[in-house]
Design a protein that fits this description.
The chain contains five helices and 41 strands. It is mainly beta.
C-alpha cells in the first residue's frame, strides 16, 4: 500500500511550516525561568547541587543539578515567588516578578552537625491548575519496573492499564471506566502522536526511563489540545535537554528472560541543548505455565531512538524544541511451538505477529511578545507501517499523519487572559485485510481507507476573581469535517481555593472523535467470528462533567492529602463492537441508545517522616440504555481498592514500595449460545494483586528488584477453545484478569560522568 500523493504533499507542506517556524527570529520573552543557586561560605559562593526550588504554595519545582542550575515552567503561576532550601543552608523566599534569569545565594546554617531533613520533594502531587492535574514524577516511576508507559501507573488510581489483545500483549490506558481510545495522550504537550495505528501501540513505544514526569487530568480538558478528551488527558513529558547530565544507562531483565536496555545523554552549550536516547528490547523465552498450548507472553524485539534539540534564546526571547523518534518492533505470540518461517499464515499452528515501523517528528516554538503575550506554533508528523497476521488472516496498514496549530495568548484586562488560534490535522489510514484459508467463511476481506482533513478554530478565556481565589476558564472549539460537518466543542472549568489547604474544582465539556474499528479492536481479527460493519459509522460524541475536592492536612506527626472526585460521561453517539447480537458475529455499529459512565474516587495519603501510605477507592458504573433496557457493559470492575506503601532510609540508600490492589467482579459477554464447555459465567471472580519493589542506591548507580503479582493470581482459561484455534468458538477477547502470573525482575541504573 502506498500513501497517496496528496498525503505526501500535505505532510511535506506542514513540515515546511514547522521548519520555517523553527528558524524565525524574534524579540520575545519565554514562559520559563532558570537560574543558579549558590551557597555562601568562607571561601566565597559555591554552586549548590541538590537544592530544592519550588514555586511558593505549590509542589511545582525541582532540584538543582551538579552546577547549581535549575529550570522551571512558569505557566499558570500567579504567585511568582520561589522557596529555595538546602539541608545545610537557611531557606529563602525569592520574589521573581518578570525575571527569567535568577541568581540566588543561601546563607549557611550556624550548626549543621544535627541537621535533619524533615521534608522531601513530593513524588506525586496535585498541581495548582484550574483542572485537577495529578503529577507523577520520575522519582515515583522508580517505585516500579516502568519499562514503558503502560507500566507507569501501577501506584496510581486514576489510570488503569488494561489488555486489548492478550496474545500480543497490546495494551490501553483506561480512565473513568472507559476504553483507552477515549483517553487523550500527549507527548511533550503535542497531540495526535498516539492516535490511529499508534492508539494502543503507543503506550508500549514510550520507554519509561525516558519520562521526566506525567500529568493526568480527568474529564474534559483544554480546547487548545483538540476535541478528543472524553475521559481524561495524559501528558507524557520526556526528559528535557537543558543541562549537561551524566550518561544514563538502565538494564533490566525478568523471569521470562526478556531483556531491556535504555540509555540517554544530554549536552548543553550556550542557548543550544540536545538529548540522544535509545532503547533496545530482546525477546525472552517461551513459557506456557497454564498448559493451554499458548505462550503466556509474546516474544518481543524492539529498537527505538529519540533525539531532542532545544534552543533557548533569552535575549531574543524564543524557545524552539524539536524531537524526532524512530521505532522498529516485532511481536510474536500464539501457540508455544509456532514458528514464523514455517507456520505464518497457515493452519498448522496458530500465531499472531506484528511488525511495526514508525517515524515521528514534532516541533514546539514559543515566542513571547512584550512582557505578557505569547505566540506558539506546534507541529507534528508521523508515518506508521504495520504488517500483522492473526492466524491465517493478514492485516497490512499504513498511516500518514500531520498536524499544526498556532495560538496567541494575551491579557485583555487586569484579571483576564485569552488564547486563540487555529489548527489543521491530516491523516490517511489505509488497511488491507486478506483472510487466507478462510475455513470459517468470513466476509470482511478488502481494502479500507480513512482520510481526515480537519481545520479547526479555538479560543479560551481565563479569568481571575476574588483576589485570585476563583479562576474560571471557558473555551470553545470548532472543527470542520468533510463527513461529519462542523463540530462545536464547548468546555468550562472553575477552581476555587477556600484557603491554602482546601480547593474545589469543577469541569464540564463535550468531546468528539472518529472511530477506526479495526485499529481499535485488534482482538476481533483473531476471533473465530465474522466481522460486519453496519455503516456509515457516526462520529462519537459525549458530555463529561465532574467535581473534585482536595484538602491538605496535618494531623499530629502526619501530613497528607485527601481528595474526592465525582465524574459522569454521557455518550449521545458511540461506535460499539457488539459481541452479543449474534454468537457468530462481531458487529461494529452505532449505538442505538445512549451510554454513560458514573465514577466516584476517594483517596487519602499520609506521610510520616520517610514513609508514605496512599489508599484509594474507585467506583465505576458503566452501562448503556436501549429503550427501557439498561445493560452493564463488560470488563469493568465496579469496585477497586488500591493501597501503596513507600518507605526509605534517612539517606535514601534503601527504598521499598508495596502495592496492593483489589478488583471487584466484572460483567462478562454473554456466551449462553456456546457449547457448555466454552461458556463463561455472567461475572468474573474478584481478585487481589500484590507487587513489591526494592531499590538500593549509591551516588552513581542503583540496583533494583521486584516481584509483580506476588500471589501468582491468574485467570483460568483466558482463551476460549484454545485447543482448536482454527475452529468455531475460538476467542481471545474475553480475558478479564492477569494471564502471565508471577513475574520477578531486576535491573541496574547507572549515571556516568562522561563530560568531566
Amino acid at each position: 500500500m502506498n500513501a497517496s500523493l496528496n498525503s505526501l504533499r500535505s505532510i511535506i507542506a506542514i513540515l515546511g511550516i514547522i521548519y520555517i517556524s523553527s528558524v524565525l527570529p524574534s524579540s520575545l520573552q519565554a514562559q520559563e525561568i532558570h537560574g543558579t543557586v549558590y551557597g555562601s561560605g568562607t571561601d566565597g559562593d559555591v554552586p549548590l547541587a541538590g537544592a530544592h526550588v519550588y514555586w511558593e504554595g505549590t509542589s511545582i519545582g525541582g532540584t538543582t543539578d551538579d552546577h547549581g542550575h535549575f529550570h522551571l515552567d512558569a505557566d499558570n503561576i500567579s504567585n511568582r515567588r520561589l522557596t529555595v532550601s538546602h539541608v545545610a543552608y537557611e531557606p529563602e523566599t525569592v520574589p521573581v516578578g518578570n525575571q527569567t534569569d535568577l541568581t540566588i545565594t543561601l546563607t549557611r546554617l550556624r550548626q549543621t552537625e544535627e541537621v535533619e531533613v524533615s521534608a522531601q520533594a513530593p513524588e506525586t502531587y496535585i498541581a495548582p491548575m484550574v483542572q485537577k492535574t495529578e503529577v507523577i514524577t520520575a522519582e515515583e516511576l522508580e517505585h516500579a519496573a516502568c519499562c514503558d508507559l503502560s507500566g507507569c501507573f501501577g501506584t496510581t488510581s486514576s489510570v488503569q492499564p488494561e489488555a486489548v489483545d492478550i496474545i500480543t500483549d497490546t495494551r490501553q490506558l483506561t480512565m473513568l471506566g472507559l476504553d483507552g481510545v477515549y483517553t487523550q495522550v500527549l507527548i511533550d504537550n503535542v497531540p495526535h502522536l498516539t492516535t490511529g495505528l499508534n492508539t494502543h501501540l503507543g503506550v508500549s513505544f514510550i520507554p519509561g526511563p525516558f519520562i521526566d514526569r506525567i500529568t493526568v487530568s480527568k474529564g474534559a480538558n483544554s480546547v487548545l489540545q483538540g476535541s478528543e478528551s472524553f475521559s481524561g488527558l495524559i501528558n507524557v513529558l520526556m526528559h528535557e535537554s537543558d543541562e549537561n547530565k551524566p550518561l544514563f544507562f538502565n538494564a533490566f531483565t525478568n523471569s521470562f528472560l526478556s531483556q531491556q536496555y535504555n540509555a540517554y545523554v544530554m549536552r548543553a552549550s550556550g542557548p543550544w541543548s540536545g538529548m540522544l536516547a535509545a532503547q533496545g528490547i530482546r525477546r525472552g523465552i517461551r513459557t506456557d505455565r497454564n498448559s493451554d498450548g499458548f505462550l503466556d507472553a509474546p516474544l518481543t524485539d524492539r529498537f527505538s531512538v529519540l533525539s531532542k534539540f532545544k534552543y533557548f534564546g533569552e535575549e531574543e526571547g524564543v524557545i524552539i524544541q524539536n524531537g524526532i523518534k524512530y521505532t522498529w518492533e516485532n511481536r510474536l505470540g500464539g501457540q508455544e511451538d509456532f514458528e514464523r518461517d514455517a507456520d505464518l499464515g497457515g493452519i498448522n499452528r496458530y500465531g499472531q505477529l506484528m511488525d511495526n515501523r514508525r517515524l515521528e517528528f514534532y516541533n514546539k516554538s514559543e515566542f513571547a511578545i512584550g512582557d505578557e503575550s505569547t505566540f506558539k506554533l506546534h507541529g507534528a508528523a508521523s508515518f506508521h507501517s504495520q504488517d500483522a497476521w492473526y492466524g491465517p488472516t493478514s492485516y497490512e496498514a499504513e498511516e500518514s499523519m500531520a498536524y499544526v496549530d498556532a495560538s496567541y495568548t494575551m491579557p485583555w484586562a487586569d484579571e483576564h487572559q485569552i488564547a486563540a488560534g487555529g489548527s489543521f490535522r491530516y491523516s490517511d489510514l489505509g488497511e488491507n485485510i486478506e483472510l487466507g484459508s478462510n475455513l470459517l467463511a468470513k466476509s470482511y476481506a478488502g481494502k479500507y481507507e480513512t482520510t481526515l482533513s480537519v481545520p479547526g478554530l479555538f479560543a479560551e478565556n481565563k479569568s481571575y476573581f476574588l483576589d485570585d481565589a476563583l479562576t474560571v476558564i471557558a473555551g470553545l472549539r470548532a472543527d470542520f469535517y468533510e463527513d461529519h460537518g462542523s463540530i462545536l466543542t464547548p468546555r468550562a472549568f472553575a477552581r476555587y481555593a477556600f484557603d491554602e489547604l482546601t480547593t474545589v474544582r469543577a469541569s464540564i465539556g463535550s468531546a468528539f472523535r472518529v472511530a477506526r474499528p479495526f485499529v481499535e479492536h485488534p482482538a476481533a481479527l483473531g476471533s473465530w467470528r465474522d466481522i460486519r460493519i453496519d455503516g456509515p459509522l457516526d462520529g462519537e460524541r459525549a458530555l463529561n462533567y465532574g467535581i473534585n475536592l482536595t484538602h491538605l492536612y496535618e494531623f499530629g506527626p502526619f501530613t497528607g492529602t485527601t481528595s474526592l472526585d465525582l465524574y459522569r460521561t454521557e455518550f449521545s453517539q458511540q461506535v460499539v463492537a457488539e459481541y452479543d447480537d449474534d454468537p457468530s458475529l462481531i458487529v461494529m455499529r452505532n449505538l442505538e441508545g445512549s451510554s454513560a459512565s458514573d465514577n466516584i474516587m476517594a483517596e487519602i495519603t499520609a506521610t510520616l517522616k520517610r514513609s508514605t501510605l496512599r489508599l484509594s477507592y474507585t467506583y465505576s458504573d458503566v452501562y448503556e440504555v436501549i429503550g427501557e433496557r439498561t445493560r452493564d457493559l463488560p470488563f469493568v470492575s465496579r469496585h477497586r481498592v488500591l493501597g501503596v506503601l513507600t518507605t526509605s532510609t534517612a539517606d535514601d540508600a534503601w527504598q521499598a514500595t508495596l502495592t496492593a490492589e483489589w478488583r471487584g467482579a466484572q460483567v462478562l459477554p454473554r456466551t449462553t449460545s456456546f457449547p457448555v464447555e466454552f461458556q463463561l459465567p455472567s461475572k468474573s471472580d474478584p481478585f487481589t494483586l500484590l507487587h513489591l519493589h526494592i531499590q538500593r542506591s549509591w551516588d552513581s548507580f542503583d540496583l533494583y528488584a521486584g516481584i509483580e503479582n506476588l500471589l501468582d493470581y491468574r485467570q483460568d482459561n483466558p482463551i476460549i477453545n484454545a485447543r482448536n484455534p482454527f475452529a468455531r468458538y475460538f476467542e481471545t477477547a474475553f480475558a478479564w484478569g492477569p494471564v502471565k502470573g508471577r513475574e520477578a525482575y531486576g535491573g541496574i541504573r547507572a549515571r556516568l560522568n562522561i563530560f568531566d
